[in-house]
Specification:
The protein has two domains: about 180 residues, Jelly Rolls; about 190 residues, Jelly Rolls (Sandwich). Helices cover about 10% and strands about 40% of the residues. The two termini are about 40 Å apart. This is Sex hormone-binding globulin.
C-alpha cells in the first residue's frame, strides 16, 4: 500500500470517529445573535450549525445578519421545508452572491449583485415575498428570484430548518455545484422571528474572528494542509521544472513532500540522509523561514533529479525521478509533517500568514486540499497589529526552547 493511500485511510478513520461522535453526542447550543466564525469545521457539506421551528410559529420569512469574508466561494445560509423537498441556499461564487432554489420539479440558480469578499462587514437580508426571494445588501436590493410551480402546494405546514455554512440536502440536488467551505464571520443575526439558539456538534470549539483581516492563509501553529501532487498543476518543461512559490511571514516547517520510501522536509529540522529516506532541514543561510511581520518569499523547485530552494540545491539524486513521482502522486503538505511518526511529532508547525501559494504560477486554494486542519483559515489572516502577538509568542518559544 502506498503512502498516499495510508494517509487517506487514516484520515477517513478519524473522520468516521468524529462522525459517530457527532451522531451520538449531545448537541451544543450557540447564541444566534453573537459573532460566529464559519471557517472551522470538520465536514465540507454538513452545516456548522442549524435550527428548526414549526411553520405555525413563523410570522415573518425574513432573516438578516452582518457578514464578512475574503473568500470568493462557499455556502453561507440555507433553509428548507417539507424535510428538504423544498430548499434554498445562498452562497458566493467569484465573490458574488448566488441563490439556488429547489422546489418540486424546478431547480433555479441565479447569481448577481456586488462582490462581497472585500473583507468589509456587509448587512445581508433575505426575505420571502410571495413567489419571490429577495436579497438585500446594505439596505439595497441586489438579487430577486421568482419561482412558481403548479405542483407545489401553497399551504405550508410542518417545520422549517435553517443552517449556516452547509446544506441539509444532498449536494447532488444542486443545479450549479460549488465548493461549500467558507472562511467568513457573521454577527448580529436575526433569524426569521425566532429567538432560538443554533445547534451544533458538541465537539465543535468556537474560534474567534480576527478584528482586522488581510488576504492570505493563516496557520496558528497547529495543523497542516495536504495536497496530492497529481491534483496540482504539473510539468510544463523539464528545464523549468515544477515550481512552488510561497509569499508571506512565518516561522516553523514550511512544507514537506512524501511518497513511499521518501520524505523531504523544509523546516526547522536537523538534516540527515540515508538510502531509503531523505529528511532534510533548512540550511543555516536559507532565507525561507521568516519571523511573523518580516515578509519573505520562498521558491521551491522540483527538477527531474533534484530539489532546489531559493536557487540553492538541497537534494540531488539520480536514483529518483521527481517528475514521474509528482505525476503519479506524492503528498505535498504545507505547515508541517503529516502522520503520527516521530518526525511529525518533532515538527514545529508553521505559524504565520502565507499571503499566497502558487504552483506553476497558479494560486492554490486550501479549501481544495485533500485534508485541512480545522484550525487553519484558508483566506484570511490577522493584520499586522495581531501579528505582534504572534511574534511575541515566537520569541517566548525561542527563549523557552
Amino acid at each position: 500500500m502506498n503512502y498516499l493511500k495510508e494517509v487517506v485511510i487514516l484520515l477517513s478513520g478519524l473522520y468516521l470517529i468524529l462522525l459517530c461522535r457527532r451522531v451520538s453526542g449531545d448537541q451544543r447550543q450557540i447564541s444566534s445573535k453573537g459573532v460566529i466564525n464559519l471557517a472551522h469545521r470538520r465536514s465540507k457539506w454538513t452545516p456548522l450549525m442549524q435550527m428548526s421551528a414549526n411553520l405555525s410559529d413563523i410570522t415573518s420569512i425574513r432573516s438578516f445578519f452582518e457578514f464578512r469574508t475574503l473568500d470568493p466561494e462557499g455556502a453561507v445560509f440555507y433553509g428548507d421545508t417539507k424535510e428538504g423537498r423544498d430548499w434554498f441556499v445562498l452562497s458566493l461564487r467569484d465573490g458574488i452572491p448566488e441563490m439556488q432554489i429547489g422546489k418540486a420539479d424546478i431547480l433555479v440558480s441565479v447569481k448577481g449583485g456586488r462582490k462581497l469578499n472585500d473583507g468589509a462587514w456587509h448587512l445581508l437580508e433575505l426575505r420571502s415575498e410571495g413567489k419571490f426571494v429577495v436579497l438585500e445588501v446594505n439596505n439595497k436590493v441586489e438579487l430577486v428570484v421568482g419561482l412558481h410551480s403548479k405542483l407545489v402546494e401553497d399551504d405550508l405546514t410542518g417545520k422549517i430548518r435553517l443552517a449556516l455554512a452547509g446544506m441539509l440536502v444532498d449536494k447532488q440536488k444542486l443545479f450549479h455545484p460549488f465548493e461549500p467551505e467558507i472562511d467568513a464571520c457573521i454577527r448580529g443575526g436575526h433569524w426569521l422571528n425566532l429567538s432560538t439558539t443554533w445547534d451544533t456538534d458538541s465537539t465543535w470549539e468556537p474560534q474567534p474572528c480576527f478584528s482586522e483581516i488581510k488576504k492570505g492563509s493563516y496557520f496558528p501553529g497547529t495543523g497542516v494542509a495536504m495536497f496530492n501532487t497529481s491534483d496540482l498543476p504539473g510539468l510544463k518543461t523539464e528545464e523549468a521544472g515544477i515550481t512552488v512559490e510561497i509569499f508571506g511571514s512565518w516561522t516553523g516547517t514550511t512544507l514537506s513532500l512524501q511518497s513511499t520510501g521518501f520524505e523531504y522536509v523544509l523546516g526547522e529540522l536537523d538534516g540527515n540522509k540515508d538510502v531509503k529516506e531523505v529528511q532534510l532541514g533548512l540550511k543555516e543561510e536559507s532565507e525561507s523561514v521568516a519571523l511573523p511581520g518580516e515578509p519573505a518569499t520562498l521558491t521551491f523547485t522540483v527538477l527531474k533529479h533534484s530539489l532546489v530552494v531559493n536557487s540553492v540545491s538541497e537534494l540531488e539524486t539520480e536514483s529518483l525521478d521527481f517528475f514521474s513521482m509528482w505525476k503519479k502522486g506524492m503528498l505535498l503538505t504545507f505547515g508541517g509533517v503529516p502522520g503520527d511518526s516521530e518526525k511529525a511529532k518533532s515538527t514545529h508547525y508553521l505559524r504565520g500568514c502565507l499571503e499566497k501559494i502558487l504552483v506553476q504560477g497558479q494560486v492554490i486554494d486550501l479549501d481544495r486540499a485533500l485534508y485541512k486542519h480545522t484550525a487553519l483559515s484558508s483566506h484570511s489572516c490577522p493584520t499586522e497589529a495581531m501579528n505582534e502577538l504572534t511574534k511575541s509568542s515566537y520569541k517566548a518559544f525561542i527563549l523557552a526552547g
